[in-house]
């Protein structure tokens, strides 16, 4: 049985105060909070295992290596990758995307086409623009509609034999829209294009099976899924990871080095130059264990309840408009009060101890589409409560009174 009050005890930060008020943390889409199981794993690592991995014959190094490789295996199992060497540790989603974009520099030629969606995070736009500049490839964009959904019929029309890559996020961080990635992947494969799915925003809510999706690349960050910052992963199908050249040169990624020629290490080490975030990788594995112990269906059911409750309560406020009303969405609400700048609303909420995000959420094209400078975004996690939503709704009412 899911008892939110018990879950909350796992998160030390949730009992702190902000500006004299109990913290209400609704900025989960930017980063999730960390349960003590993950914090303990970090303390345990530095207290008992800290050593460099893969290189040492000594006991500490072997223990650290074992823990790190076990974490890779946990991640492989969670996403149902075929091989553990298809899981590459990175510093996060942004790093993973850049790794793939860089690799494709040598595979694309002038006139090739890359398709992205209008719902992307900047980290999923800029690396492709840079790739296009390097190769002469052309960037095409799947448009969105008023509900914040992708216009999928337009996607079909963009696809051609020139399409080499398609990049879409699984869930939009600004609006919470869940994109029809299964369809997007199937259609791309019909024309022989590879697909990268940005899972940073879906990972905390949806358990993804990369083999069932038949996706070519899938990326995420640990800190969106109750893990630490500065670590993430790239899943790539073995055939693709073999085809891509290494991203960075350095230690760990080589097989043999002479001044004449260097040969690269096998997967996954080919893409893991230098000393990685060992502790972070281990803690990432613990975070995945933690989420699975609660269960992703339980999490989704509860978060949907929060979403529905918050949507209904917020819409009772006159002049409040919600952006992103897709039928399939995660527990994210982006909104504005008529005539009031989102930043001002966010500042007043902060005084009340409520953490929300304001601004363009690294997704300026979406804001341009709606012709707004930004939104207030409240994003809910399984450790949030209806009573916290009541606090938010009262806070928004107060902000409205003070600012209009
Ligand atoms: C957070 C996020 C990113 C960026 O993740 P980093 O950890 O900052 O690299 C990319 N895409 C989406 C959809 C996100 O939510």
Q: What CATH architecture label of the largest domain applies?
A: 3-Layer(aba) Sandwich
Biggest sheet layout: 7 strands, mixed
What's the CATH class of the largest domain, please? Alpha Beta
Give me the CATH superfamily of the largest domain: Type I PLP-dependent aspartate aminotransferase-like (Major domain)
- In whole angstroms, the N-to-C terminal distance is 44 Å
Bound molecules: pyridoxal-5'-phosphate
What does this structure look like?
By secondary structure, this protein is α/β, with parallel strands linked by helices. The chain has 2 domains: 136 residues, Alpha-Beta Complex (Aspartate Aminotransferase, domain 1); 254 residues, Aspartate Aminotransferase, domain 2 (3-Layer(aba) Sandwich), CATH 3.40.640.10. It contains 14 helices and 17 strands. The protein has a 7-stranded mixed β-sheet with strand order 4-10-9-8-7-5-6, sandwiched between helices. Helix 2 runs antiparallel to helix 10, helix 4 packs parallel to helix 5 and helix 11 packs parallel to helix 14. The longest helix is centred in the first third of the chain and has 21 residues. It is globular, with a radius of gyration of 22 Å. The mean pLDDT is 96.
Please give a quick description of this structure.
By secondary structure, the chain is an alpha/beta fold. 40% of the residues lie in helices and 17% in strands. It folds into two domains: 4-30 and 295-403, Aspartate Aminotransferase, domain 1 (Alpha-Beta Complex); 39-292, 3-Layer(aba) Sandwich (Aspartate Aminotransferase, domain 2).
